[in-house]
Amino acid sequence: MAAASMDHKIAPSILSADFARLGQEVEEVIQSGADLIHFDVMDNHYVPNLTIGPAVCKSLYAHMQRTGIEAPIDVHLMVSPVDQLIEQFIDAGASYITFHPEASQHIDRSLALIRDGGCKAGLVFNPATPLSYLDYVIDKLDMVLIMSVNPGFGGQSFIPAMLDKLRDARRIIDQSGRAIRLEVDGGVKLDNVVEIARAGADTFVAGSAVFSAHRSDDPHGYDSVIRGFRERLADAG
Ligand SMILES: O=C(CO)[C@H](O)[C@H](O)COP(=O)(O)O
Ligand SMILES: [Fe+2]
């Protein structure tokens, strides 16, 4: 089933960007038509990798303000515990903050912290995490993020069983009657985005698929790949 909204959004994951020129990378992907900046935070504890934190988010947000780049920063927390970092990312300019329910001792409280801080809140589901975590908090969500790889690294392959999980999540969201985005993260490429959209996703994180374009010979790398996503998503309906 296609997403009811048809309002597809593309969220390049800066995990695969060139961190030495992060501001420029973000500028280029947004100018090329991306909608959100997906910001992966890993702590070498909840996941076996270490990336970037609130200080980088704050600098990036300030750079975006200065240079007139308008795009929400979509912070994906792969950290445990979560609450202290939630507060820091609210202060650092995040628009969306999502976290893994297993990483929070008090899921409802963590969601309230995000929303009270003026950000949009989301829960992230690892491939084997049940959607039943949605049962009593769906009215507090702006986003559901389905991981289609195990979290921790970019460049992994999409796990096909996540298509059924996306269909289940789409059904739950539609039944809730709320405007909740259904984001998918991991292994999203030009050649699988149509079936992923048809399974119900409306927000597509793409790291290696987008940022590998700057290492290719194509001088319009980001334009080409983001246009490619848009064309395929238009076909998906
Ligand atoms: O959260 C993540 C990994 O934990 C990343 O957002 C994700 O892997 C994106 O990278 P790619 O599109 O290359 O799979
Ligand atoms: Fe992510």
Automatic annotation (TrEMBL):
Pfam (any one): Ribul_P_3_epim
Residue positions binding substrate: 13, 76, 152-155, 185-187, 207-208
Reactions listed under catalytic activity: D-ribulose 5-phosphate = D-xylulose 5-phosphate
Keyword field contains rRNA processing: no
Binding annotation for a divalent metal cation: 38, 40, 76, 185
Cofactor binding remark: Binds 1 divalent metal cation per subunit.
UniProt superkingdom: Bacteria
Pathway the protein acts in: Carbohydrate degradation
GO biological process per UniProt: pentose catabolic process; pentose-phosphate shunt
Positions of the catalytic residues: 40 (proton acceptor), 185 (proton donor)
Keywords in alphabetical order: Carbohydrate metabolism, Cobalt, Isomerase, Manganese, Metal-binding, Zinc
Enzyme Commission (EC) number: 5.1.3.1
Cellular component terms per the entry's GO annotation: cytoplasm
InterPro entries (alphabetical): Aldolase_TIM, Ribul_P_3_epim, Ribul_P_3_epim-like, RibuloseP-bd_barrel
Cofactor(s) the record lists: Fe(2+); Mn(2+); Co(2+); Zn(2+)
Stored Gene3D superfamilies: Aldolase class I
MF annotations from Gene Ontology: D-ribulose-phosphate 3-epimerase activity; metal ion binding
Biological function: Catalyzes the reversible epimerization of D-ribulose 5-phosphate to D-xylulose 5-phosphate.
Family per similarity comment: Belongs to the ribulose-phosphate 3-epimerase family.
Protein name: Ribulose-phosphate 3-epimerase
Organism: Halotalea alkalilenta
